[in-house]
Amino acid sequence: MLLSEVREPFDDPAWTFELKFDGWRLLAAVAGDQVELRTRNGASATRWFPEVATNLAGLAGGPHVLDGEVCVLDDLGRSDFDRLQDRARRRGWKPGFDPVVFCCLRRAGAQRP
Predict the structure, then answer these.
(1) Most distant pair of Cα atoms in the chain: their distance
(2) How far is the C-alpha of 53 from the C-alpha of 61, rounded, in Å?
């Protein structure tokens, strides 16, 4: 789940490239209505970001394991890491807290459910 740096750009159909969001990397395991969010260190984050779990529940075509980032977006749709850190420290959601989104990319050529 960690990035690796390369010195020169390259194009290889065996590699998948993705945008860099300024958030926390999470794995989301989705099986019907059961969703488990995990950090790259294996900590459960499902209760920290319940809106993500709720939105992923029932995802068709599963089970799925999604690799993405949870982010707090500003008014222009840009990720704001400081606001995410503040939200994550709260370990949950209440009215007035910044909502989070789970950003992940569908691999080119993958079938839509």
Answers:
(1) 46
(2) 17
Backbone angles phi, psi at 84, to 5 degrees: -65, -45
Dump pLDDT digits (tens) for 14-45.
876 666 788 999 999 999 999 999 998 999 99
Question: Do 85 and 73 form a contact (C-beta atoms < 8 A)?
Answer: no
Q: Which residues are catalytic?
A: 20
Whether residue 53 lies inside any domain: the answer is yes
Per-residue pLDDT band at 107 (split at 50, 70, 90):
low
Residue 67 within any structural domain of the chain:
yes
Domains held by the chain: number: 1
Residues spanned by the domain of 91: 24-103
Q: How far apart are CA 39 and CA 33, in angstroms?
A: 20
